[in-house]
NAD(P)-dependent oxidoreductase (Ciceribacter ferrooxidans), 297 residues
Amino acid sequence: MTKRIVFTGGSGKAGRHVVPYLVDKGHQVLNLDLVPLDHPRVNTLLTDVSDGSQVFNALSMHFGFDGLETGKGPAPVDAVVHFAAVPRLMMRPDNTTFLVNVASTYNVIEAAVKLGIRKIIIASSETTYGVCFAEGDKDFHQFPLEEDYDIDPMDSYGLSKVVNEKTARAFAMRSGADIYALRIGNVIEPHEYDRFPAFIADPPSRKRNAWSYIDARDLGQIVHLCVEKDGLGHQVFNAVNDTITANEPTAEFLKRWAPGTPHTRTIEGFEAPISNRKIREVLGFREEHDWRKYVSA
Ligand SMILES: NC(=O)c1ccc[n+]([C@@H]2O[C@H](COP(=O)([O-])OP(=O)(O)OC[C@H]3O[C@@H](n4cnc5c(N)ncnc54)[C@H](O)[C@@H]3O)[C@@H](O)[C@H]2O)c1
């Protein structure tokens, strides 16, 4: 069934693949961003989501001029996908990274809930696992990284994502809405697979990403599955592809490159150290873009 989806940050690296995926599935999408998305069927409403009044307004508007034809005012929104953010450290001062990300997520979730929108999907991050933007060489507590991990980032970006997951939980409790947070791995666009031979050749270089990744198009599938799957309340999902970015089976690879980190269960075959078992079992995710299809390493 066609759904009306408001997507924030759709003009960015991940959004420009996820938005077309949703459109191809038959959904209507309105993009809220500071810059336009070049897509013939998606209007971008230039909106600063760190400003709550703009968010409230943008979530209750027509998606485009065709909305005027009904004469009934803007139709209800079925889902909000919130990707807009300062997407990493070193782009803005640390306090701005934290404040913009926390305020924007609060604004989007609060406005959506108060406007009666029952499905909200937010972009959390692999950085919540604490190693990506750590000072120095920090070890993970355990492998595989699953959603019940004691997340403990020390940086302002990762901390903003932890707070955002808590904001999602608070509003889900308050409202009964479905609010799903995606712990997105390192996003890989189709043209970026030429980076993989270097990843494979230099294992320490990928420790901060836990030797895991998400293809931007497979992220589209995950968001679509979240849009379609109702009734789960507050959820956190790792959003990564199935396998490790290495040529050695995961258990042996981790013993060699992360020898101090215990394993909490058997890690089979080439399973990614950030586990995507939950999205496979709960949402029915089936990856389409295994990196091995694009890399002959
Ligand atoms: N790229 C990754 O590897 C990665 C990994 C984990 C999580 N994430 C998260 O996924 C989301 C998307 O990441 P991305 O890589 O596409 O980032 P990006 O910077 O490429 O895209 C973010 C988009 O948000 C927009 N934006 C920023 N501030 C805004 C504001 N105040 N109001 C409206 N729009 C605003 C930007 O213009 C941009 O188009 C982010 O929340 C990011 O934190 C990304």
Q: What stands out?
A: Residues 8-9, 11-15, 32-35, 47-50, 83-85, 87, 104, 123, 125-126, 184, 186-187 surround nicotinamide-adenine-dinucleotide (CB under 6 Å). The chain is about 30% helix and 15% strand.
